[in-house]
Amino acid sequence: MVANPLLWPQLALISNVNGSYFILMKRIKGGSHQDALPSTYRNAAFLRKKMTRHELLVWEKIRNKQIHQQKFRRQHPIGRYILDFFCIECKLSIEVDGESHLSIIQMEYDLDRSKYLTQFGIKEIRVTNNQIDENLTAVIELIGATIKEILNG
Fold first, then answer.
1. CA torsion through residues 27, 101, 128, 52, sign
2. Where are the beta strands (DSSP E) in 20-122?
3. CA dist list (Å): 35 to 30, 64, 72, 80, 86
4. pTM of the full predicted structure?
5. Which of 22, 76, 143, 152 has the most crowded CB, counting CB atoms within 10 A?
6. Where would I find the beta strands (DSSP E) of the chain?
7. DSSP label at 137?
8. Can you say how many angstroms the Cα of residue 12 is from the centroid of all Cα atoms in its chain?
9. Taking the CB of residue 114, how many other CB atoms lie within 10 A of it?
């Protein structure tokens, strides 16, 4: 099936060397993917199937508009990055950080990522696996309070 550019002007059909086609969202002001590449979409789809236990715990509490009627997407690509959870309306990213985020290299990567997201007005909440294990309710309350602050902002 080919996307009709007259019906869907925000989509662009591109092809790779093999002749396979991908639909790529064009960068438009406020676009939710900010030029994510087809490989980033594939990685996001893989990560959605392989969510960690901690990601699943948070997802069960934020999915289906459970917090202030806000819809979250999981493993959402933006540019070359994949956000664990993203609310487009609020421009809020929630990141669940495991032990791998404690390395110097990963911390530098996370800092670059945060700077990139800030360019698009995206606010970021980072929570650790330990925080989720110790007090999932407090994590969800933090997410709710942040959404309320953004909506009332």
1. positive
2. 21-25, 73-78, 81-87, 92-97
3. 11, 26, 20, 8, 16
4. 0.74
5. 143
6. 11-15, 21-25, 73-78, 81-87, 92-97, 123-128
7. H
8. 21
9. 16
